[in-house]
Structure of Shikimate kinase:
Amino acid sequence: MDIICVNGPINAGKSTVARRLAGLLPGAGFVEGDDHDAPEGADLDTVIAGGLARIEGLIAAAAGTLVIAYPLRPQDHARLAAAAARRGVRLFTATLAPPMAVALADRGGRPLSAKERERIVEMYAEGYAAPAFSDVILDNAGLTPDQAATVIAEAVAAWRAVDRGPARR
């Protein structure tokens, strides 16, 4: 069992790539991290807290590999890594990092709101596209979702091949 998070700013392709990645990994389940129990119009901190609590619960109950699409701050990564560690597994983080101009463009069939565009600019400034905790950072601007998922699957395979200590034996 592994916990894999596809990270990145809004409109980087997290959900699409994570779904494709889950399809490439035998027995993996996909988790849309943006699904949360926060009330409509809740502030960002409430939404993040609800999303993370839900993801932690799914990690605790997981019977197999989970591929999660969710943007992570360093403290969020630490929280999910701790949830994975409680299960005796590690967290693999792949960050999608297209150039900001690509993330700001309407893609994937849904137009971005002004608020989303503003948040994208903030997320790039806050380092969501280049976090130190990421196991792989991928500029996916020139890749199809399937190609990006394949690159990440190869990185996961290499990561899995590394000796992971007694908890994995």
Q: What stands out?
A: Helices lie at 14-24, 44-61, 74-86, 100-104, 114-125, 145-161. Confidence is low (pLDDT under 50) at residues 165-169. The first helix runs from residue 14 to 24. The two ends are 12 Å apart (CA to CA).
